[in-house]
Amino acid sequence: MSISEQEILQLAREYGAHFGLKLSTIGTYAVNDGKFFGRLEQRGSCTVRTSRIVLSWFSENWPDADLVWPAGIARPALSGSGAPKKKDAA
């Protein structure tokens, strides 16, 4: 499953807006790199491996109860119990 840099940014922006988090914080949570999303905003790119890691992180941590997954972005299957893990974003 592939995802574009713009789709990754869309997920990050929606997730961040929902929880009141900066992109740098989400980057630290998702890939242990606070500058990750800033680089993508500056027309940077990432490897396929990293995009899969980020997409999986969003899928596992998405707050399904109160935020709809963006239309047009394919979501990978959830692992484990079948329910997303809820990260304490506070």
Short description:
The chain has 90 residues and is an all-alpha fold. 49% of the residues lie in helices and 0% in strands. Mean pLDDT is 88; it is low at 81-90.
Q: What brief labels describe this structure?
A:
90 residues, 4 helices, mainly alpha
What does this structure look like?
The protein is mainly α. The chain has a domain at 5-61. Helices cover 49% and strands 0% of the residues. It contains 4 helices and no strands. It has helices at 5-19, 23-31, 36-41, 48-61. Helix 1 (5-19) packs parallel to helix 4 (48-61). The radius of gyration is 12 Å and the shape is globular. Mean pLDDT is 88; it is low at 81-90.
- The count of helical stretches stands at 4
Q: What is the arithmetic mean of pLDDT? A: 88
**Strand-residue proportion:** under 5%
Low-confidence stretches: 81-90
Element-level helix/strand string: HHHH
Alpha-beta content class: mainly alpha
Principal-axis shape equals globular
Distance from first to last alpha carbon: 30 Å
Secondary structure: elements and pairs:
Blueprint: H1 5-19, H2 23-31, H3 36-41, H4 48-61
Helix pairs in contact: 1-4
